Amino acid sequence: MSNTAHDDEWVRKPASASVGTNCTAAQYDSMYAESLADPDRFWAAQADRLDWIKRPTKIAGWNYDPVDIRWFEDGKLNICHNAVDRHVAAGHGDRVALIFEPDSPDAEGRHITYAQLQTEVIRMANTLKKLGAKKGDRVTIYMPMIPEGVFAMLACARIGAIHSVIFGGFSPDAIAGRVEDCESDWIVTADQGLRGSKIVPLKANVDEALEKVSVKAVLVVRHTGGEIAMREGRDHWYHEVSQGVDDECPCEPMDAEDPLFILYTSGSTGSPKGVLHTTGGYAVWTETTFRYVFDYRPGEVFWCTADIGWVTGHSYIVYGPLQNGATALMFEGVPNYPDHDRFWAACEKHKVNIFYTAPTAIRALMREGEAHVAKHDLSSLRLIGSVGEPINPEAWRWYHEHVGAGAVPVIDTWWQTETGGVMITTLPGAHDMKPGSAGLPFFGICPQLVDNDGDVLEGAAAGNLCITRSWPGQARTVYGDHDRFIQTYFSTYAGKYFTGDGCRRDADGYYWITGRVDDVINVSGHRMGTAEVESALVLHAYVSEAAVVGYPHDIKGQGIYCYVTLKVGEEPSEELAGELRQWVRKEIGPIATPDHLHFTPALPKTRSGKIMRRILRKIAENDFGSLGDTSTLADPSVVETLIEGRQNR
Ligand code: 6R9
Question: DSSP state, 449?
Answer without folding.
Answer: E
